[in-house]
Amino acid sequence: MMLRFRCCRFFIVSPFDTPLIHSFKAKPHWASSLIRAQMGSYSTTSSCPKLVFRQLFEKESSTYTYLLADALHPQKPALLIDPVDKTADRDLALIKELGLTLIYAINTHVHADHVTGSGLIKTKLPGVKSIISKASNAKADLFVESGDKIHFGDIFLEVRATPGHTLGCVTYVTGNGPNQPHPRVAFTGDALLIRGCGRTDFQGGSSDKLYDSVHSQIFTLPKDTLVYPAHDYKGFTVSTVGEEMQYNPRLSKDKETFKNIMQNLSLSYPKMMDVAVPANMVCGLQETKSEAC
Ligand SMILES: N[C@@H](CCC(=O)N[C@@H](CSS)C(=O)NCC(=O)O)C(=O)O
Hints:
This protein is α/β, with parallel strands linked by helices. The chain has one domain (49-265): Ribonuclease Z/Hydroxyacylglutathione hydrolase-like (Metallo-beta-lactamase, Chain A), CATH 3.60.15. It has nine helices and 14 strands. Helix 6 (207-218) crosses helix 8. The protein is globular. Residues 61, 112-113, 190, 196, 198-199, 231, 233, 267, 270-272 line the site of ligand L3IBWBLD. This is persulfide dioxygenase. Residues 62-231 form the Metallo-beta-lactamase domain.
């Protein structure tokens, strides 16, 4: 049991190198403990032999798709979080190369800026099941709600409802347990972006709800939890709960300030919105409607 736990630990590596280690030595013992504790919240380098993890990027919509699999399970069951239609072939080729068995195509919400790859993937691999939240009102094979667990091999994701960007947004968090990845990993969709958050001006968006969702469902996770969002527009790849609690320029503020910021974002509507939203309500394949979901 101990061996399995160690095997699945994400190794904490300092994002800083030697000069900071020197400065540790110059400080009293209590100060270095404090710095080490704070560093734990910001460390993002990880390794876990059991968990296959790939962050994949679709550059037109700046979308991240995540591939996860249990490499130690005989079938190597895998899932994709937020696949994009344009990069579905790339992702499926990688899955084949790695000898994984894709079982789920999962969405964090009904996206407005790109078409999901779920439907397309299902036409190519009919055994794959699509998953989305019940609250999204979209078509899929399986619907999840807060507290549900999605198992792939011996690893699972826990579902946390995080409405606010859209009504049906959820965050998927790796399980809390001795044989689960450590630190935990949160796939936050558009609820929490790195140093930002999803807009709240359409699709049932609400800045009031988003603030509550992030503070109650994400900022209550351990501070070293890794944060992987559905988009990044600034070149960031990963953050942590502790880092976003401290430095997120929107969500580290009080609720009234946050609501004011969100009201004044003045973003133009996503270019693909009129195509993407109706398509994503039916798994990304409008022409074949719900049969493909
Ligand atoms: N320019 C892009 C859309 C950019 C955008 O609005 N992104 C959304 C997430 S996708 S609906 C968002 O919430 N952004 C928050 C922010 O602060 O940027 C396009 O035309 O597709």
